[in-house]
Amino acid sequence: MPTPTAAELRPEPGTPVDEIETPAIVLDLDVFERNVDRYVRIADELDVSLRSHVKTHKVPALAHYQDRASGGGIVCQTISEVEVMAAAGLEDIYLSYQVVGERKLERLVRLAESINQFATTVDAAANADPLGAAAAAYDTTVDVILEVDVGLGRTGVPLGEPAVELARRIADHDHLAFAGVMAYEAHVKGQASTEDEYEQLCYEAIEQAANTVAQIEDVGIPVPELKVGGTATSPYSGRHPRATEINPGQYAFNDCGELAARPWAVSVEDIALTVHSTVISDQVNDQIVADAGSKSVSMDTDRQPLVIDHPDLTYAGYSEEHAHIDTSAAEGPVPSVGDRLAFVPPHICPTINMHDVMVGVRDGVVTDIWAVQARGKVK
Length: 379
Prior knowledge:
11 helices; globular; 18 strands; alpha/beta
């Protein structure tokens, strides 16, 4: 008899949350829905569309919920994520990533033909021209968003004339349709420490993009979209009058990074997903060990997980399957072997990508169980 996988060992609906096998990622659906509603309202107030980035969770059922709530479609980061979401019936997808390689471009073109609304991203002739050739080979047209660099220094064509020239190259191609501009001002998150600074720096970044949009339009190329913003920045970058769409992802869940970035806007009450863990050892003075190490909680940042409901305990270190919890400052009884702990992940996106299954709960009881269907879909 085959060994059951983690995905097959799912808790049944109605199971109390403290009976779930650990380590497990657990989504409080009431908090998730409240977070989604908050950003729907933000988008409405800013008069922009909300297109949620589903690389954060990789779960089609949650993507459908976000799409229904906003009416703005979804964002994916890889071709294989798009394939999973399209197979699950999502019909309005933007791929915010440069696709390179013959086989990937063939997959992209097939998706473009099969999805009701689809667009992809370029930032240079080196990735735009092969895309155009692939589209021509299938005698189809692919909608293209031009990414411009407004300060992150990662991807994106330089502002001004280089962007105008690339926009012209796309618009002149028989099998590419110029569909707009994307500006990702994530560098602001590392520079701003107050709400006023967020507002100022986001406006300055998007103003640069808007100036380039105006230059593109001056040469006769319409720019129907200016996509901007991540979770921390979009409530501010979306205020720019030229912005048409915001693309946040973590907003529906939040994590230690979001708590640190905007303490005036995000609190522990806004944490929708936590990693549930069990204490497995207490053999070292002033320490307990739980079963949520670096293979259960992503440690790709310099932040440590936050121990929910035990602010006097500190996640002090880890190995692959062990979480080292410092109890030296404990003000009450210290959890013992068999007790449960829940952690706020330092970074939600790679944490979810480590798990086969996400468990949805309301009022401490399991109501939904989802396979993380796009887990590991990085190609």
